[in-house]
Amino acid sequence: MSRRGPLLPLLGFLFLSLGCAAASPKKDYTAFRAADPHSILIVPVVNNTTNVEAPGLFLSTLPIPVAERGFYVFPVNMVKGVLENEGLSDPNLVHTADTARLCNLFGADAVLYVSIEAWTAKYVVINTQVTVEFDYVMKDGKTGDTIWKEHHKVIRDSSEGARDPLSPLVAAVIAKAYPNYMPLARSANSWVFTAPGIGLPAGPHHKEYGKPTDSGK
Fold this sequence. Notes:
Strand content: 15-25%
Largest sheet: 6 strands, mixed
Number of helices: 9
Distance between the termini: 50 Å
CATH topology of the domain at 26-117 and 133-153 and 181-194: Rossmann fold
CATH superfamily of the domain at 26-117 and 133-153 and 181-194: ABC-type transport auxiliary lipoprotein component
CATH architecture of the domain at 26-117 and 133-153 and 181-194: 3-Layer(aba) Sandwich
Radius of gyration: 21 Å
Structural class: alpha/beta
Shape: globular
């Protein structure tokens, strides 16, 4: 018997792994470091899905991971209220407004714009596949230029790693009625803000600020 057969799937897996590893080149942080933002204004997110609850839920997951990277983050509920008073109650209007104007309202250095591209649950037999997908863009408050951006998608199947004390059928019914998007949203945020060579460089309130060990190096 030839020994080549069993090796082919293994080689294919290795090539696939190498291809995935090479698919995320490091960012050019020149513009970000030139802007050197200390405070970040997170504006209401644009919802490109049909889930009406997604914007409020996802917006609540953004301040903590950004603050943990060492930046001052303006309270998102306060920001939303001020913007509404300025006639910017629609997130789409906020995202098309002048970045410098937004920053002047709060004294911010940069604005983080995020759009929700997917927030869905797909049901197949007794499994639930939950998908979240986001676009992140940060712009300099002085020039309006993009200084950092990322796109990320997370998919989770309810059968993955499940050790539920309930029967699979009962667990599937619960998952279908109440799909849990929040852990995936937090996972997406954790990746885009902290992944080496992809995430946000450490801000001025982080111990790695300006050091070659932070995510932006």
